[in-house]
Design brief:
nine-stranded antiparallel beta sheet; 21 strands; 307 residues; globular; Aldose_1/G6P_1-epimerase; single chain; eight-stranded antiparallel beta sheet; mainly beta
């Protein structure tokens, strides 16, 4: 069991017994049906379960700070975890809403950075009349500093409401020198890839990574509805702050954001024969460098809701 720090009067646990004690402590803060509780997830990894008074629910693994499930009041899960996902802390969790930080894609450090490969800790939880919320924290450590030698704090607030899931990511430079980063929420939506579409991107500048990811083709999106007829890996620069996503399964999801300046659509098609038909990725991203001086912060929000 990994060491997971839980502050603000919560326990710190590094064994199954301490996990059970922390689970009871969380449960005491919530009613029997709503709030935030600790549970044992896949691979015996700790996860948080957030339940709103309207019975919407989200699951968040502390490893990677990864939301792996968002069930609306009907019980339907709108996120997707790939069948090849592993929960062993050797690889990041493949699915849900993984973090890409402090780098999106390939670059000077490992693919998509280290935010999805580290343990996050709980710093706050809240239960309100209409939602349940938790705030996670990630700080630099030996693992991150070995590849990116800066002190930082990342706060990630997740709120489950009535048929909605919202997140707020705040990155603060706690170092004595400036740094820059890029980031994204690599959201996997459960979908019929053959029937899914995204509206709101018409007119955006595109960087199409098909057929050569290393040499993307610049263009402009001309379609009202972008579909997934085959392999799709495309960046949309200066994307609008609201997109409409039809998952092809009868659900229309509104994707709103603040300060996520770009969007990425991805489906691997036959490169993932076992599952490509069952999901598409619609990602909010900040692909240009964010430059922070010591003490400065950058914040971005995402709101997913059923229309």
């Amino acid at each position: 069991m990994a060491i997971v720090s839980v502050s603000n009067s919560f326990l710190t646990f590094n064994s199954p017994n301490q996990l059970r004690l922390s689970r009871r402590r969380f449960s005491a803060m919530a009613t029997s049906t709503t709030g935030v509780r600790v549970a044992e997830g896949e691979g015996n990894l700790p996860k948080l379960v957030l339940t709103s008074p309207q019975n919407s629910e989200a699951e968040i693994y502390l490893f990677g700070g990864c939301i792996t499930s968002w069930k609306v009041a009907s019980g339907k899960d709108l996120l997707f975890v790939r069948p090849d996902a592993v929960f062993n802390k050797i690889k990041p969790i493949s699915g849900g809403i993984p973090h890409c930080f402090p780098q999106f894609g390939p670059g000077l450090i490992q693919q998509h950075g280290f935010g999805r490969n580290m343990d996050w800790s709980v710093v706050d939880s809240q239960n309100a009349d209409d939602n349940a919320a938790v705030t996670l924290e990630l700080k630099d450590g030996p693992y991150s500093r070995a590849m990116w030698d800066f002190a930082f704090q990342a706060l990630y607030k997740v709120i489950v409401g009535a048929d909605s899931l919202s997140t707020e990511l705040k990155i603060t430079n706690t170092d004595d020198k400036p740094f820059s980063f890029s980031t994204a929420l690599h959201t996997y939506f459960r979908a019929s890839s053959a029937g899914a579409s995204v509206r709101g991107l018409k007119g955006c500048k595109t960087l199409n990574k098909d057929p050569d990811p290393k040499n993307p083709i610049e263009g402009k999106e001309e379609r009202d509805a972008v579909t997934f007829p085959g392999f799709v890996d495309c960046v949309y620069l200066d994307a609008p702050n609201e997109l409409q996503f039809d998952n092809g399964l009868g659900d229309n999801i509104i994707i709103k954001n603040t300060n996520w300046s770009d969007a990425v659509l991805w489906n691997p098609h036959t490169l993932m024969e076992a599952c490509y038909r069952d999901f598409v990725c619609v990602e909010n991203a900040k692909l240009g460098d964010v430059n922070l001086e010591p003490g400065q912060s950058w914040t971005a929000t995402q709101l997913l809701s059923i229309s």
